Amino acid sequence: MNALIFSAVSGVIMMFSSFLLNNKNSVRVLAHVLLLATIIANIFELRGISFFHIDTRGMLEFDRFALLFTLVANVCTFAFFLLSSRDLEKIGNHYSDYFSLLFFILAGIVVSSSFKSLLMLFLGIEILSIPLYILTGSDKRNLKSNEASLKYFLMGSFSTGLMLMGIALIYGATGTFQTGITVAEKVPVLLITGMMLLLFSMSFKVSAAPFHFWTPDVYDGAPTVVTSFMATVVKAAGFIAFMRLFAEEFGSIRPEWKLLVGIVAAVTLFIGNITAVFQQSVKRMLAYSSISQAGFMMLAIYSLSNDAKEGLILYAAAYSLATIGIFAVLVRMKDYTFEGFNGFAKQQPFLAGILVVFLLSLAGIPLTAGFLSKFYMLKATIDGGSLALAIFAVLMAAVSVYYYFRLIQSMYFKTGNATISGTTTGFKYTLAALAGITILLGIFPNLLTNWLYF
Amino acid sequence: MIVLLLFLVPLIGGFLSFFIKNDKTVRTWALLTSVITLLISIAGNTFAHSPGQLHFSSSWLGSLGSSFSLQLDGLSQILCLLTAISYPLILVSTWRSSYKTANNFFALMLLTQAGLMGVFLATDALLFYFFWELALVPMYFLCSGWGGERRIPVTFKFFIYTFTASVLMLIGLLYLYFQTPDRSFSLQSFYALKLSNDTQSWVFWLLFLAFAVKMPVFPFHTWQPDTYEQSPTAATMVLSAIMVKMGVYGVIRWVLPVVPIAAYSWGDVVMSLSVIGIIYASIIAIQQDDFKRLIAYSSIAHIGLMSATLFAETKIGYQGVMVQMFNHGINILGLWIIVELIERQFGTRKLSQLGGVAQKAPALAILFVILAFANISLPLTNAFIGEFLMFSGIWSSTVTHYNILFTVLAILSIILAAVYTLTAVQKVLYGPESSITEGTKDIHGNEKMVLWVIVIMVVVFGVYPQPLLRITDGFVDLLLNKINVAHLFVK
Amino acid sequence: MSGFFSKDAILLGAFEHDKFLYVIGVLTAALTAFYMFRLLFITFGGSFRGSEEQRHHIHESPAAMTIPLIVLAVLAIIGGFVGVPEVFMHGGEKLADYLSPVIRPVTEHKVSHSTEMLLMALTTVIAIVAIVIAWMRYRSYKEEQPSAFGKVLENKWYVDELYDSIVVRPVNKLGVFANKYFEKSGIDALVNGVGRMVNYGGRQMRWLQSGQVGSYILLMVISMLMFFVLQFFLRK
């Protein structure tokens, strides 16, 4: 509740800040302060101290899982602010608006990760999506950005329609919007159909195949900073909502959807990884990488155990930190292709070293958070009864090494003129801190997962 | 404590090396670190026998059922000793090679050593996997960063190949974890497992594949000659002297006692592959003109013999494997140094372009010839002890019906080894001088010293192998015990 | 001489065992005598066949070589007495005693002492005859073209060539074949092929990403339909 109120209010404050503050720097500082306040408020709630007591009539429930994820999302957003807020300002003149939109997205994340009613799920997903449509098109004079925004919006509405239809069918079958249904022996067809529609629309939101088609185009077209946020925090939030929905609402009809989710996971892994191999632009590669990582996160939904919960939180953190870090460097590069990174290590040995940590984490090499989060997923999958899916997943992870390491090769082993601008000392230290967290979580994941229990 | 230091010293030394910018200092530092590691390892082998010194366990990832536990038993001792001895020799013998950004090079070398030590010490499956990758990743950077012309695609293939196999191993380990009653990754729980025959079979392949690629066993070997050829010599030395032993070690530690029935039932297949590999690699070695590739294929043949012996399941054979793991490491190190010296002096590794070196470089010639003899495993060299024990091991094997056939085919490898090794000796040392070898100078200084050390080890362990045998004797008995119990169970 | 007694012991053994072997043994002994003395006569006898220059350089070997030669010669003479047959000296077979822990001593000779003496004499006579032939033929040796049979002998019965064609060359050919076809375009190509397949797959998969919203939605609808079919009709 704390985080929800704080981020919603912060959004409003940021909206008006452009009237009151005409200095870019002060707007930025304000945004940082507000986000920090949100984080602190969230930690308080995680420790059992809630500032607000509002009766949500059981439509929202702030359990530890939701709170912890909100914390992760907020911290990742904070890292994003620290690294990329200056780039956010370069998109256009309405920089305070961008911050306010980001805060609204955070509010949407809170709602969609702590819903107890399907209405709240819908609301949360929409609060989270609509600002994204705007942000995607925020580079007004760029045709690609406009196109991406329109595509995203069109297809997004399509999936919203599916979701609404699904919710309606479920209401028809059960007579309630509250989650946690119990079903009799025979599962009503209406419920199954509703469940499937929700599966499709949620798959769309988290860009799981075969509903991922918007992802590469939109990620590629959107301003790179926005992509960075969209591909990480927002996607992870989608997964939390996905997990919550399937654990609480459809947990009792698990046999009905297990196969479907398994197929979606496998197809996502396959398409994401195989297509990423051929990409020439790092930005597009990261778009496909986000799809392939989504495939791994789908495994959590497939197995729905405690391991899967811990793992999903860890995955969200590991994946977001690494991807935000890589995007933060990418924004500053002159050339977004792999060739553009040739010789990077020679000019920026420090940054290159940090990028290597992030890439290793994404590829799932031990001693990084990325490995352990993948490990959790595999463990949950095998526990959930599908060894074949786990084997398929690791084979695809081996494919992913190919495109992540291509970037390493460009940076370290090829000669060229990688040009990067605007790397301040603070920027480097922030990145180093992210890399540090990545490694720390890779050795002691309990630092994060223990919050679920204590 | 010793056991922890074995891993920590190279790890910390490696990390610190990143920050030493001066070329000379970082070399000295790396050498110092490796010498300290060697001293610790010797201490672990000689007087530190209390369990407190040889075991270390600390809680780590408790929620995942894994702990940070290391142990120095007979098998670990011999491999840690090999690792510890090899490093100073490698560093001294490549002292004169120049590297761009030397600090990174030596840091990665030491990190690899830490990973290798970890692999040989870990008694927890997850920890083992961590170290397995920790050894691989720095190695990739070493080979790709400082290697030859085609290094980028070649080492990438090496990396993806081994990585793919190792993630499958991870799945295998995870599956075993779920079978343990207490949900634990510890080696002891794995040893206590009683899996059904079918389960054992595919767990066996999941695990064995990773080790087979690493060793490499035919037909998973194609990454190896290219990688050896393209890597910087120091990295090649680590790869061939120590890293391939990770595969052999893995089979002994994590496959044979864990899935003994599968090891028994698939033994014939693996032995056949190994024996085919021995002959196949030897025949191809005869064709090689590049000295590095020749040694690479020769190494495949030698390792093939080890992997065949592993599945013969005889005491004498296992002792041979233990001894030979050490001896092969030492010998191939010597051969690589010879290659390095030749390449540095003449700028080529092509045998056909060399000749007549013996006249002007008698010291090089003598050392080379002794090492060549060791490569053919002539009596009085250390390799003879190991290979002879292994041949007897395969011969006396009771788990396969084809033991005699396997032995005969495997022994062919000695003849073939004589063919390619002596051809190389002849082409390099004798015959007419070529335009390249006209101004041959003899070796001196570091390389000479290292080669003499190696040659002395070759002869000493060839005449008096008991110290090595003693280290592993107890371990071999324990191992056989674990495997044999299963045999009773089969019958 | 040591060679006499040792060879004789072997021949005796052969005689006891198999007469044919004995004949071959004696013949070999004769040939040995022949070629050894041929060597002697050609090297030291006859006229000098080298150049004047070389002739000038001939000298007695240095002490470092002569002394070991003398020692060896002495040993060759007295070495024979470690195994004198019983015919000449009772209890003379010192060597047999010495080796008895290793080799089971032959306790009983099947052959009588007189036969043994006879055989020895025969061998000696044959050897002397061979030496005489060698002396006749080679005492004044001139270089000559070898006869046809001599050529076969000069080429060591062509055994090397035989090995070359049935062992060395096939192994080499096999090696070339294995290296070129099996290794490079077999196993390695298979390994690389997996990588290339992934790459190719990536290239083809790209075409799904057409950029047209309409086709995306079509694809999504088709896959939804497939999921529905799977869920309601195929799943048991």
From TrEMBL, chain A:
<comment type="similarity">
    <text>Belongs to the complex I subunit 2 family.</text>
</comment>
<keyword id="KW-1133">Transmembrane helix</keyword>
<keyword id="KW-0813">Transport</keyword>
<feature type="transmembrane region" description="Helical">
    <location>
        <begin position="189"/>
        <end position="213"/>
    </location>
</feature>
<feature type="transmembrane region" description="Helical">
    <location>
        <begin position="155"/>
        <end position="177"/>
    </location>
</feature>
<feature type="transmembrane region" description="Helical">
    <location>
        <begin position="225"/>
        <end position="247"/>
    </location>
</feature>
<keyword id="KW-0520">NAD</keyword>
<feature type="transmembrane region" description="Helical">
    <location>
        <begin position="384"/>
        <end position="405"/>
    </location>
</feature>
<dbReference type="GO" id="GO:0005886">
    <property type="term" value="C:plasma membrane"/>
</dbReference>
<keyword id="KW-0812">Transmembrane</keyword>
<dbReference type="GO" id="GO:0050136">
    <property type="term" value="F:NADH dehydrogenase (quinone) (non-electrogenic) activity"/>
</dbReference>
<feature type="transmembrane region" description="Helical">
    <location>
        <begin position="27"/>
        <end position="44"/>
    </location>
</feature>
<comment type="subunit">
    <text>NDH-1 is composed of 14 different subunits. Subunits NuoA, H, J, K, L, M, N constitute the membrane sector of the complex.</text>
</comment>
<dbReference type="GO" id="GO:0048038">
    <property type="term" value="F:quinone binding"/>
</dbReference>
<keyword id="KW-0472">Membrane</keyword>
UniProtKB/TrEMBL annotation, chain B:
<feature type="transmembrane region" description="Helical">
    <location>
        <begin position="405"/>
        <end position="429"/>
    </location>
</feature>
<feature type="transmembrane region" description="Helical">
    <location>
        <begin position="158"/>
        <end position="178"/>
    </location>
</feature>
<feature type="transmembrane region" description="Helical">
    <location>
        <begin position="6"/>
        <end position="22"/>
    </location>
</feature>
<feature type="transmembrane region" description="Helical">
    <location>
        <begin position="234"/>
        <end position="255"/>
    </location>
</feature>
<dbReference type="InterPro" id="IPR010227">
    <property type="entry name" value="NADH_Q_OxRdtase_chainM/4"/>
</dbReference>
<dbReference type="GO" id="GO:0016020">
    <property type="term" value="C:membrane"/>
</dbReference>
<dbReference type="GO" id="GO:0003954">
    <property type="term" value="F:NADH dehydrogenase activity"/>
</dbReference>
<dbReference type="Pfam" id="PF00361">
    <property type="entry name" value="Proton_antipo_M"/>
</dbReference>
<protein>
    <submittedName>
        <fullName>NADH-quinone oxidoreductase subunit M</fullName>
    </submittedName>
</protein>
<dbReference type="GO" id="GO:0015990">
    <property type="term" value="P:electron transport coupled proton transport"/>
</dbReference>
<dbReference type="GO" id="GO:0008137">
    <property type="term" value="F:NADH dehydrogenase (ubiquinone) activity"/>
</dbReference>
<feature type="transmembrane region" description="Helical">
    <location>
        <begin position="102"/>
        <end position="121"/>
    </location>
</feature>
<feature type="transmembrane region" description="Helical">
    <location>
        <begin position="127"/>
        <end position="146"/>
    </location>
</feature>
<dbReference type="InterPro" id="IPR003918">
    <property type="entry name" value="NADH_UbQ_OxRdtase"/>
</dbReference>
<comment type="similarity">
    <text>Belongs to the complex I subunit 4 family.</text>
</comment>
From TrEMBL, chain C:
<protein>
    <recommendedName>
        <fullName>NADH-ubiquinone oxidoreductase chain 5</fullName>
        <ecNumber>7.1.1.2</ecNumber>
    </recommendedName>
</protein>
<keyword id="KW-0830">Ubiquinone</keyword>
<keyword id="KW-0812">Transmembrane</keyword>
<keyword id="KW-1133">Transmembrane helix</keyword>
<dbReference type="GO" id="GO:0042773">
    <property type="term" value="P:ATP synthesis coupled electron transport"/>
</dbReference>
<keyword id="KW-0679">Respiratory chain</keyword>
<keyword id="KW-0813">Transport</keyword>
<dbReference type="Pfam" id="PF06455">
    <property type="entry name" value="NADH5_C"/>
</dbReference>
<keyword id="KW-0249">Electron transport</keyword>
<dbReference type="InterPro" id="IPR010934">
    <property type="entry name" value="NADH_DH_su5_C"/>
</dbReference>
<keyword id="KW-0472">Membrane</keyword>
<feature type="domain" description="NADH dehydrogenase subunit 5 C-terminal">
    <location>
        <begin position="35"/>
        <end position="230"/>
    </location>
</feature>
<dbReference type="InterPro" id="IPR003945">
    <property type="entry name" value="NU5C-like"/>
</dbReference>
<dbReference type="GO" id="GO:0003954">
    <property type="term" value="F:NADH dehydrogenase activity"/>
</dbReference>
<keyword id="KW-1278">Translocase</keyword>
